Amino acid sequence: MPGIGNVSAGSVNLLFGTHTLDDACSQRWHYKPQVMVSALNLSLYITDRHGSFSKGLMLYPELFKQLEAVRWDMARDIHWDNFDVNKLSQEQARTIKYNAITEWAALPATEMFLRDNRHDSDFSAFISIWFFEEQKHALVLMEYLRRFRPEFVPTEAELHAVRFEFDPAPAMETLMLHFCGEIRLNHWYRCASQWHSEPVIKQIYTKLSQDEARHGGAYLKYMKQAIARFGVEAKSAFAKGGVLMASARRTAQAMHPTNLHVNKALFPNDTVQSRLPDPLWLEHWLDRQIKFGAAWEAKVVERILHNVSLMFNRSFTTVQELNKYRKELSRELAQSCAEEALLPGPA
Question: Which of 75, 102, 263, 334 is 20 to 30 A (C-alpha) from 295?
Fold first, then answer.
């Protein structure tokens, strides 16, 4: 399922496009990468704000190999013949339809990524994998309905309704939202697999949950790359996003990028969920149907904090501890920006 945008405004210039840093610094840095290919490796040279070049291996080639090695085939690997007609209710079929439409929103998310990452061919290439696999999620859910509950197959109009433009938003904060969104969706689909008793859809949701976990792992690699290149700027952005996405129990809505506002001009119909046939289905699915309760939410928070601890090389056991660190980073970034402002400009 795609992750899309910020809490108040949508799309991003992820990692190496023009992007706004933390609130402590209102400047904009411009990163214009140049890709240089040798016979031995693929290396990415990035012009930083000081005009110097940093070098690092592109992530896409290895991510391609890793994801290709574990990719499942919809015809061969889904056990369609195991379908049990007595174990799928109309209510359950309707939720499968809505998840299929939500997955289809990978299309506008990909358009956003490619638009805002023209200077980052590495990440843009990875998005080709992400888009393929997310659209396959929509397709396999629709194929399930086509075979077993054709009256619930989404129409083209219903699918097209979730294709709309997202506003620009801070890049690195949004990268963290995407990462946390993949962790959350992995747990949603695992919970959904347990809720269903029909064998084929149980298997499908398990496949999807594993894909979402791998996508989260890929995003994590790009986050670590950003920290290595941009230091406290990246850390501050990721800490902010981590605090937000790990604080879902404090919010009335499901904390996932597809449930956040992404286009000011279209408000309030500017979330993916608001454009589905039933905009309230997600909360009902989570609370009343699959019963994604406190125990599941605790697992999501634990995974976010665990990965953030690894990323920052320090331990966080609560959101409060991460928020305290976020404030430290914000002060450090503000000081850095103040010092930068005092430096003489180019001659």
Answer: 102
Ordered by where they begin, the domains of the chain are: 60-342 (1.10.620)
pTM for the full predicted model: 0.83
At 298 the three-state DSSP class reads helix
Phi, psi of 104 (to 5 degrees): -60, -20
Contact present, 196 and 202 (Cβ < 8 Å): yes
What Rg, from alpha-carbon coordinates, does the chain have?
21
CA dist 334 and 48 (Å) reads: 19
DSSP run (H or E) holding 284 = helix 281-284
Higher pLDDT, 171 or 246: 246
**Mean of pLDDT values over 265-273:** 94
Under 8 Å between Cβ of 3 and 127: no
Q: Given phi > 0 = left and psi -120 to 50 = alpha, else beta, which region is 36?
A: beta
